[in-house]
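Table S5 (text form). Sequence records supplied for joint modeling of the two-component complex.
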Amino acid sequence: MRLTLHVWRQAGPRAAGRFVRYDVPDASPDMSFLELLDVLNQRLITRREEPIAFDHDCREGICGACGMVINGRPHGPRRATTTCQLHLRSFRDGAELWIEPWRARAFPVLKDLVVDRSAFDRVIQAGGFISVRTGSAPEANSVAVPKQDADLAMDAAACIGCGACVAACPNASAMLFVAAKVSHLGLLPQGQPERARRVVTMVAQMDAEGFGACTNHGECMAACPKDISIDFIARLNRDYLKAVASGKPQAARANGGDG
Amino acid sequence: MELRARLPAGPLAEKWERHRAEIKLVNPANKLKRHVIVVGSGLAGAAAAASLAELGYAVSCCCFQDSPRRAHSIAAQGGINAAKNYQNDGDSTFRLFYDTIKGGDFRSREANVYRLAEISARIIDQCTAQGVPFAREYGGQLANRSFGGVQVSRTFYARGQTGQQLLLGAYQSLARQIGMGTVKMYPRTEMLDLVVVDGRARGIVVRSLVDGAVTTHIGDAVVLATGGYSNVYYLSTNAKGCNVTAIWRAHKRGAAFANPCFTQIHPTCIPATGEHQAKLTLMSESLRNDGRIWVPKRKGDTRPPLEIPEDERDYYLERLYPSYGNLAPRDIASRRAKQVCDEGRGVGPGSHGVYLDLRDAIARLGHRVIADRYGNLFEMYERITAESPFERPMRIYPAPHYTMGGLWVDYNLMTTVDGLYAIGEANFSDHGANRLGASALMQGLADGYFILPYTIGDYLAQAKLPPLDASHPDVRRTEAEVSDRVERLLAVGGRRSVDAFHRELGRLMWDKCGMSRSAAGLREAIQRIRVLRDEFSSDVYVAGKGADLNQALEHAGRVADFFEFAELMCHDALHREESCGCHFREEHQTPEGEAKRDDERFGYVAAWEFRGVGEPAVLHKEPLEFETVHLAQRSYK
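The corresponding structure-token record, covering 896 residues in total, follows.
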């Protein structure tokens, strides 16, 4: 199949970027989207041009490294599918594709389609964990967890941290990402002691990173390759209000206490 | 070079406890003065970095990914073993130990494997406390399933994303320490060499993958948790970035490399579709619990699977191995799949595939139960192949998946370089010649949470480590060598891309040093690797510049190391004149085509000492002594 690509090329964080047109006349519908870029890159290399930089690693839709906006949609047109698992059979022969990096103030472009998502790591560092020292855990079955809670926690925990939710949001909000972690840990009995502090510190860090506010567009859920529901955002909001109203977070020290 | 395994004396079940009691401890006040560098942030690396920081050490951790959460452990699907005996089906520490030794075809150390089995239960406790959402029963207790090659249900799982959930647990523990400032994290940072001063590992030279800056990190000990080398085959189930560079560089600085030819080919992967194929995707072998594997009885039968009647199907694993059937260990399932395809009975494009059929399970358990168990795997399969496993059997074929070989380590997980440790898949320690399903996660976490944090103290408490700074001549020389190597790769200016060379090397390794190997094939491979390696250094073209984000350059450095390493792998396979586990030598098989081990001549760990690129490596043997288990020919009939 024949495809026309317009790919965002940007030499560095401070360089100006622009779309560059590439024609691929002989793509195969069985190729993954990243394999299409591989093939194109091989041709660029043969022509002594610099290949397109893009993040990728597992190519199984689980590491969360890959991600690009394809015709305005993060990870492209297929529901619940990462870019690496998107296959060209999702496009029609002759299609024209515009390929861009995630666009958000908190995710600065490093080069071409590669962005810096370390803001997500810092949000987790602020409170996205259960403080349990290696060796101090009780017998695993000593705490029963209702199956439906464990299943729901798993739905939230399935987040791969790719950042598509931020790229899809008109406000570049990270609420779905933060809500997924807050819900995952807040649904489990092990996560209760730090539940109030966690939501407050994570939200504060999210704001500090320059992510926008949530205004319930729901674009994040539509773009999420793991189908994470915005119900978790409602859960975050409830937890946040409860924590702030009860005054619990003020009593807590930052970063997990002195562990 | 001398191999001192430092196995503790005493009865098997008491060795680890006794060893822990005898190990030297670092004074708590001194721990902060001890700086440990952890390379890699997968299960082993993240667990070790977090646990060491909790103990009070100053820790640095680097990974080549943009976040420690993306290490390849994340892709493990099926589960993690632990001898909890929650199912009351007769499991025990001893049984897990025995299954692992037997599954590894008696090529691993008893003491290490027993320790692994002993620790396994605590890993589940730890991960559960971290909030890992393991599958549960309706009563709220943890659920189990049985998994490739064993007859008890001891595998804990989180849907088909067990590796992801365990890694996120370790990552979150690590993130907590980073937030507290006890771990300094360096993402997008690749280790390119090891700094050895006065015979001790004292640091690493790294390249920033953002701006190309080459710098040195100095410390008191270095821990390599850098995973396996399946990407020597180019096509494998490993993430694209997985590489041999860190352990190969360490090998060149004096760390012995053990059993490099022990590479596992996983039986259930989605077959390749064409020349553009960049990697292969694993389908969890948990599917083998409910799926039946078959090919047509007749050669060249191209009818669609649903039109092939029952009596014209060959359920070859059930036929050959009546007691284990579709759950036969990975090496056996892979080899048999290759065999039926070589006979011309393969299915799908290129006839490189066998059917994995869940029809009977769907009929027995219903659509809903199967969807609940395997829904995400089915979706993944359909996304890639555009075929629904509910409507027609899946097509699978073996693919390189895991490498049992790695840096040789003693009982403390220290390599032959003082102060240099290797943990997780990067070492050779526990899986012998074949790893059982759901044991990789167990080993990575055992090493990272519960073994290394103790054993490294023994070294740090005793070693005399004078202060060192970046101006030391050994440090500057190592750093200069790294920069020089980067410049040389960029300067070649040849005609062929890095990727083209990597593909060619991969095909060669798959053909000659893959699922079955012969002396003639291995000798030929060694010659061709040398020729290709020379071509690479004179004809590769690496685009871009050094002081930049340059993925072609990253890949070039890794492929250059694969070229050096591949030769050692073939030498090891050639010298091991027996078949054991995943290492199948065509000259050594029974009339039924089963592997023929030779305990008399090869009951040892082969640890290779580096003597120069293209020079024959020197073989050191660590004899394997079995005091508890009785060596038997593996039988899964």
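Note: The domain at 477-623 of chain B is CATH 1.20.58.100 (Methane Monooxygenase Hydroxylase; Chain G, domain 1).
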